[in-house]
Amino acid sequence: MKNYSGNREPFVYVHLAASDAAAGRPLVDALAEAGHRLYVSSRFTAKEKRALKKAAAAVLFLSGASPGPARAARSPS
After folding, report:
1. Domain residue ranges in the chain
2. CA distances from 29 to 11, 13, 21 (A)
3. Sign of torsion, CA 53 7 36 63?
4. Buried-state track 39-60, b at ≥16 Cβ within 10 A, e below 16
5. Could you tell me the end-to-end alpha-carbon distance of the chain, in angstroms, rounded to an integer?
6. Where on the phi/psi map is residue 66: left (φ > 0), alpha (ψ -120 to 50), or beta?
7. CA distance 28 to 40
8. CB neighbours of 17 closer than 8 A, spacing ≥ 6?
9. With helix as H, strand as E and coil as C, how does 46-74 read?
10. What sign does the CA torsion over 16, 34, 13, 44 have?
11. What pLDDT is stored for residue 19 in this prediction?
12. What is the pTM (predicted TM-score) of this model?
């Protein structure tokens, strides 16, 4: 699926970590099949931050499998 490239039409920003791809992909595919314009990313760089600010809606897939500081903060020392 090609990311929405932005022609001022409303779009949905979807953040889907690689570790959550199997669980999230069916919903992403259903949104695309329903005709929603999607910007799907597995990273959060400055480019993605700009896309998120412009999005009409956002879907964030978060799970225990998702990497990042939040997971590290929950881990016992």
Report:
1. 12-74
2. 14, 13, 11
3. negative
4. bbbeeeeeeeeebeeebeeebe
5. 41
6. beta
7. 8
8. 42, 61, 65, 66, 67
9. HHHHHHHHHCCEEEEECCCCCCCHHHHHH
10. positive
11. 84
12. 0.73
Q: What is the CA radius of gyration of the chain?
A: 14
Q: Kindly list the averaged pLDDT for each block of 10 residues, start to end, along the chain of length 77.
A: 69 89 90 94 89 91 66 50
Q: Would you state the structure tokens that stand for residue 21, as one six-digit string?
A: 């791809």
Contact 61, 26 (CB under 8 A): no
Structure token digits, residue 26: 């069916």
Tell me, what's the pLDDT at 17? 84
